[in-house]
Amino acid sequence: MTLGEALAFARGKIDRLDARLLLQHATGCTHADLLARPETPVMAPAFDQFAEWVERRAGDEPLAYLVGEAEFRGRVFQVSPDVLIPRPETEVLIDLALDKLGGRQSPAVVDLGTGSGIVAISLALECPAATVSAVDLSAGALAVARNNAGRLGARVAFHEGDWFAPLAGQRFDLIVSNPPYVAEGDPHLELNGLPHEPRMALTDREPGGNGLACIRRIVAAAADHLNPGGWLLFEHGYDQGAASRNLLTAAGFQSAFTHPDLAGIDRVSGAHL
């Protein structure tokens, strides 16, 4: 079996780019190797791994879970089925957070529902003056996040628990979150590999709800954990901007706004005390 024959094996089963990336991970070869030396032999164990991945990818299992990693903001984060796969639109949340942190001497930041840690770790690395904490209910997710922080050299204090529960008595200058916001029963939950991602990170699991249950809890408790002038920023669904602003205003926050992602879709809402 050669590199060229291995790619031919995957043809028609999965996307060409996915096949190339999986073969590179299975064999350790580069894209240049595939182009210049397709006759290079593939060891049997490497081909067996590649063939298994091809079948699983054909079954809609996400590429990131197969290879165990995904890129976000130019950094490689390890991922597992315990955490959501990083999405580019979450960069909007980080960019807005960095903007709100600008000019603060030593701000305290917390990321609620940290998952793989992409938000907390990115903020810790890109705003070194900040003291960053992160919370998640899932022990499996926290294990992934701690590993990512260690690999990338980010100083983040991790806490296991339900939203603000592990943060009694603590106050922050910025609270950020990418909470579950897909309504339970939404048909999108059965598409595009989402059945393989952790359901508790996607939806609040509230039967007949509108996906806002977690956002409501965060907004309701945030003021008790913010310093004067502190900001709350959170990611949400494409149709939840107005409802998010209403929740913020009703909770006594000022200057509630919604910001779109690069596709022009409402993505992040926030306000300050």
Task: Give a verbal description of the structure.
- This protein has two domains: 3-59, no CATH class; 82-272, Rossmann fold, CATH 3.40.50.
- The mean pLDDT is 95.
- It is 38% helix and 20% strand.
- Helix 2 packs antiparallel against helix 4 and helix 6 (91-101) runs parallel beside helix 7 (118-126).
- The strands form two sheets. Strands 5-4-3-6-7-9-8 form a seven-stranded mixed β-sheet, with helices on both faces. A two-stranded antiparallel ribbon has the order 1-2.
- The chain has eleven helices and nine strands.
Brief account:
The chain has 273 residues and is an alpha/beta fold. It folds into two domains: 3-59, no CATH class; 82-272, Vaccinia Virus protein VP39 (Rossmann fold, 3-Layer(aba) Sandwich), CATH 3.40.50. It has helices at residues 3-10, 16-27, 31-36, 44-58, 63-67, 91-101, 118-126, 139-152, 199-202, 213-222, 241-250, and strands spanning 69-72, 75-78, 108-112, 131-136, 156-160, 172-177, 226-235, 254-260, 266-272.
